[in-house]
Amino acid sequence: MLKIGVIGAGHLGKIHLRLLNQSKKYELVGFYDSNREYAQKVADEFGYTLYEEIDDLLQDVAVIDIVTPTLSHYDIAKKAVLLNKHFFIEKPITHTVEEADELVALAAEHKVKGQVGHVERFNPAFKAVQDKIDQPMFIEAHRLAEFNPRGTDVPVVLDLMIHDIDAVLSVVPSPVKNINASGVSVISETPDICNARIEFENGCVANLTASRISLKQMRKARFFQRDAYISVDFLEKKCEVVRMKDAPQQPGEFDMILQNAEGVKKQIYFDNPDVDENNAILEELETFAEAITQDLTPKVTLEQGARALRVAKQIINSFSKK
């Protein structure tokens, strides 16, 4: 078992603490939080060992789990790398692209493994269709949430949309060519609603919408590719794959047949995969343990986290100039 410590015991940090305490791949050594009074309450309630200093916690572990506000990500991760500690870091990887690039280089230099917490990669519905998404040419995603003051210190792009940015980048094998975006601040000092159009060099277009002032929750993505339509409901953990193939000469009574203007007939059929239930946060943490112990590439690398942040910042810059 890998000895691990958690830095940050807020809403998400407490979830990480609970799951790591249950995990068979980690030994939870303790945690640190800069809010001493709050941290003591967490320690008293759950029995986790509270460390007074980050440095002391780092000395006692092989892996550190960084679940703090984004502004502190780089400084904590750099401290871990310089002590040759592997680190899991919540999304977005850092506050700036420059920090992300420096962290990638530093981790490579010290041969330290890092993984970014883009948890939707481990969503069972997305996992079920990942191998079926092949050269998508149009992607549409909506991520809508009810208002919650937590997270409004950053634009909705970094708060919500970055999940879909990472998911899209993971299935489109092409560099980004162009980005156009619009953002509106409604209740926060930073944009609460954003729409972004990402064009890739291979011709794929992704249209992403994120809002944190909606009346209902929605986390859906649709992928359109040659002869197939794939939908993923990240919230309900459901997916659907609709495919087309050449229609048979003698269609069955219940076959769904389409005919285009040129007279070509296609049969529509469903190819829905099974969705295996999981705890996505636990899985992302435990796959990182496997990457360390088996010397594998982490499922969400620091480079991928940096790329998602770079695209997010381009989106923010795009609507900031308007």
Automatic annotation (TrEMBL):
This is Gfo/Idh/MocA family protein. SUPFAM superfamilies: Glyceraldehyde-3-phosphate dehydrogenase-like, C-terminal domain, NAD(P)-binding Rossmann-fold domains. It comes from the Bacteria. Residues 156-216 form the GFO/IDH/MocA-like oxidoreductase domain. It comes from Mesonia sediminis. It holds the Pfam family GFO_IDH_MocA_C3. Residues 2-118 form the Gfo/Idh/MocA-like oxidoreductase N-terminal domain. InterPro entries: Gfo/Idh/MocA-like_OxRdtase_N, Gfo/Idh/MocA_Oxidoreductases, GFO_IDH_MocA-like_dom, NAD(P)-bd_dom_sf.
